[in-house]
Amino acid sequence: MSQTPIRRLDARAPEFMSTLDALLAFASEADERIDAAVSEILRAVRSTGDVAVVEYTRRFDGLDVASMAQLELPQAELHSALDSLPLVQREALMVAAERVRAYHERQKLESWEFAEADGTRLGQKVTALDRVGLYVPGGRASYPSSVLMNAIPAKVAGVGELIMVVPTPGGEKNALVLAAAAITGVDRVFTIGGAQAVGALAYGTQTIPQVDKIVGPGNAYVAEAKRRVFGTVGIDMVAGPSEVLIISDGSGHAEWVAMDMFAQAEHDELAQSILLCTDAGFIDAVHAAIDRLLPTMPRRETIAKSLANRGALIHVDSLEQACTIANRIAPEHLELALEDAEAWIDHIRHAGAIFVGHWAVEALGDYCAGPNHVLPTMRSARFSSPLGTYDFQKRTSIINISQAGAQHLGKVASILAHGEGLQAHARSAEMRLKD
Amino acid sequence: MSQTPIRRLDARAPEFMSTLDALLAFASEADERIDAAVSEILRAVRSTGDVAVVEYTRRFDGLDVASMAQLELPQAELHSALDSLPLVQREALMVAAERVRAYHERQKLESWEFAEADGTRLGQKVTALDRVGLYVPGGRASYPSSVLMNAIPAKVAGVGELIMVVPTPGGEKNALVLAAAAITGVDRVFTIGGAQAVGALAYGTQTIPQVDKIVGPGNAYVAEAKRRVFGTVGIDMVAGPSEVLIISDGSGHAEWVAMDMFAQAEHDELAQSILLCTDAGFIDAVHAAIDRLLPTMPRRETIAKSLANRGALIHVDSLEQACTIANRIAPEHLELALEDAEAWIDHIRHAGAIFVGHWAVEALGDYCAGPNHVLPTMRSARFSSPLGTYDFQKRTSIINISQAGAQHLGKVASILAHGEGLQAHARSAEMRLKD
Predict the structure, then answer these.
(1) C-beta atoms surrounding B340 within 10 Å
(2) In principle, which of A178, A316, B179, B232 could form an S-S bond with A81, CB 3.0–4.6 Å?
(3) What is the C-alpha separation between A247 and A283, in angstroms, rounded?
(4) Which letter does DSSP use for residue B210 in this model?
């Protein structure tokens, strides 16, 4: 009998939907201690700039420097990090970067314009952001793939200057992260982190230029700081725990499904792996595979806790029912582990990314398939999209009205403005009328 | 001599940039009283649904009804509001709606996919949001044009159900707003408002279905409620005061410029109208026109306060300098009131909308030119875009990897996953390797 604790549910049970909702629920608690600390740090960085950033970096990261300039890494250091990598790692990073770049080239928005018969021309002008800040966590969660996924779309969009911040507690640097910065052409790198790094990017300091948008993952302090500076600058999103939903018809290999669930669960204890399967026997096989494979995993403790707390193996009646449930979950990652997977794509309305068929495992998308691995979490795929080139571009409406156009449109605008009680609006249109 | 109080600045003055920054600064103060009230209202709506909404609507809007159902307007009432309008107003609304629709059709995102040599297919699937809530303010700021600008892009995107909320304090309804709802095909209308309406849309009640995104302007309570429900649902933006920047070379009519500044200033005392002009004599003429025209305006008190508090007439050296300043301001609305306006479009990197030439007055864009009048305020045009069809669509990455593709990509993913210490990621890729 299977031993590993993980929920076994039946979608036909009367209380299933409320059980599911409870399983999905995740409240990112507001923590007053974090709020207060972040508020103070941002205030200090805003008022004293470099002085505050240097002081917090001394306090939190143990780096004792005389000035902010000493916290900037020269480009040569990034390139020597790249050169020092084993060839196989360097090549893997290069292949991944090139595939991500090629995919994101296709997302680039273009300006357009059209003319009307009376000479009026309307359009939409697309421009890149001037300057973007990229937050990269230090320590255990410092991932070179995250540098690729955030920096490449910014560069493809044509962002003028890309500034990376990465804390190096105790001075310890991650060679793979620096190499990824070199490959993607990050313009400047500062070894700072936490709320002080977010504040420095949002407000600018004597040394660090103010950016227009901040992207990249971080801990609770970083997330709260991003929330607070939003408006002064753009931000990407405040992500929740990572999730995968696998829909299976019992075809394929139970071990593959088990390992795909592990890959999600190994991120942290809050990560969520759910299987929806029409075949009760296959669910048993997956559970057995979990039992068999779990002891072999270096991160088995995290995996076990994640599966026990937030995982589920769910028996469904049909693939139609599985898709209905999937649309309710709106998962970050969805694997269609099906014999005829393509036929089911159109049944899915909400998901960050759909991995189609048994060969399309999430790990390939995490690193090198090409599409972005920064995806909407916590059911936000109902209304938001993967990070993309378009997040580093913006649109300006172009309204180029001819004299003839102003005659026609001016009368309409005048009537509607008077209807709204905005007489100056009406008069400014009427002044352009020739008759 | 000109009498109307408005700043006169010279861009050549040494302290000009800091004066400009102070003029642009606008702190939307956090108000603890509003925060606490909104927090309580949202909690009540979340826990008791219709009961809370009905009670708050009784308390705040003076509507005494027995059940939520009585707060829904039947479609017939929307259509009879449309039928009851004077013909000239009905036709103006129709023309505006059709032009807005035609422009927004061009913004529609389409799905795409491409194949690689080994059979791997990658793409991006675009879908509309299922259900959207549209907040429309009651009372003085209840604008039919706002219904058109928010509802039409949602409908063009293909949103399944569009639910409008509009408070009707004391039962007073705005016929133009209901007519605009009829024209744009709004699916359901509830006469509720404030934080309770935002909560009802975000969480759903027994009567009001939960939406996926909430758009539309509102007062400080509505803005705070939207900020708080963000994450549970998407929101458009929390807008600041409206602004116009006019760049003039002294060509055109001083009275047109003065009235265009009034049109912005009449919105409210915090609205901002700024002129940048290379011709000192023309600035004098604009100031004189302001003196002459102001007494004729019904909303002259608001206009005068807005111009005195936040307006400015600024003498610049050159149009190049004007564009540099414009890019720093990143205005919501930019009028290029220039002889050769088109030549200067490419000098502008940051603006919500650019009105090109003397005939392209902002009021036409506010009502009927076609582009959206919901634009980024408070310098956020540096990183964000006008409301558009794309705000009601979302993207899903499609990752369809062939068996051959999994061999090639799996090796790359495995190397990178091991580099990040994520062994289950690596194993899930390696399990698909055939050799």
Answers:
(1) 11
(2) A178
(3) 11
(4) P
Mutate to test the interface with A, among B214, B409, B411, B434 (most CBs of A within 10 A): B409
SS3 call for A392: helix
The answer to whether B362 touches B263, Cβ cutoff 8 Å, is yes
Nearest to B276 by CA among B352, B340, B351, B335: B335
Q: Is A77 a catalytic residue?
A: no
Placement of tokens 């409406």 in the chain: A397
Q: Per the CB < 8 Å rule, is B383 touching A394?
A: yes
- Give catalytic status of residue A40 as yes or no: no
Q: What single string gives the DSSP state of each residue in A2-26?
A: --S--EEEETTSTTHHHHHHHHH--
Q: Which residues contact A117 (CB under 8 A, 6 or more apart)?
A: none
Residues with Cβ within 8 Å of residue A328, at least 6 apart in sequence: A17, A20
Q: Which residues in chain B are closer than 8 Å to A364, comparing Cβ atoms?
A: 399, 401, 406, 409-410, 413, 429
End-to-end CA distance of chain B: 89
Compute and round to an integer the Cα radius of gyration of chain B: 26
User: DSSP string spanning A284-305?
Assistant: HHHHHHHHHHGGG-TTHHHHHH
CA distance B184 to A201: 42
Question: A62 to chain B nearest CA, in Å?
Answer: 24
Superfamily of domain A7-26+242-369: Nitrogenase molybdenum iron protein domain (3.40.50.1980)
DSSP string across B288-337: HHHHHHGGG-TTHHHHHHHHHHH-EEEE-S-HHHHHHHHHHH--SEEEEE
Task: State how far the Cα of A8 lies from the Cα of A10, in Å rounded to an integer.
Answer: 7
Percent of chain B with pLDDT strictly greater than 90: 93
Taking a C-beta distance cutoff of 8 angstroms, is the pair B108, B157 a contact? Answer: yes
Where, residue-wise, is CATH 3.40.50.1980 in chain A? 7-26+242-369, 32-108+126-235
**Residue tagged 């009998």 (tokens):** A1
Angle at A328 (CA atoms; ends A326, A331), nearest 5 degrees: 55
The answer to whether A256 contacts B432, with C-beta atoms less than 8 Å apart, is: yes
Binding-site sequence positions of A for NAD(+): 135, 196, 219
- For residue A430, report the phi and psi dihedrals to the nearest 5 degrees: -65, -35
> Nearest CA of chain B to the CA of A38: how many Å?
16
Neighbour-count burial for B129-146, b at 16+ CB within 10 Å, e otherwise: bbbbbbbbbbeeebbbbb
Q: Which helix (H) or strand (E) holds A93?
A: helix A87-105
Query: Right CATH number for B49-115+126-235 from 3.40.50.300, 3.90.1200.10, 3.40.30.10, 3.40.50.1980?
Result: 3.40.50.1980
User: DSSP assignment, residue A233?
Assistant: B
Catalytic residue among A224, A287, A315, A332: A332
Other beta carbons within 10 angstroms of residue B230's beta carbon come to: 18
Q: Residue count of chain A, please give it.
A: 435
What tokens appear for B314 in the block?
């600024």
Q: Note whether A45 and A203 are within 8 A (CB).
A: yes
Does the ipTM exceed 0.85? yes
Q: Are B327 and B258 in contact (CB under 8 A)?
A: no
As assigned by CATH, the class of the A32-108+126-235 domain is alpha beta
Distance CA B207, CA A298 (A): 50
Query: What are the per-10-residue average pLDDT scores of chain A (435 residues)?
Result: 88 94 79 90 97 97 95 97 97 98 98 98 98 90 92 98 96 94 98 97 97 94 91 87 96 97 95 98 98 97 97 98 97 98 98 98 98 95 97 98 97 97 97 88
**Nearest alpha carbon to residue B412 among B400, B424, B430, B397:** B430
pLDDT tens-digit map of A7-31: 999 999 999 999 999 999 876 666 7
Task: Indicate the burial class of B92 (C-beta count within 10 angstroms; 0-12, 13-18, 19 or more).
Answer: buried
Dist CA A127 CA B408 (whole Å): 36
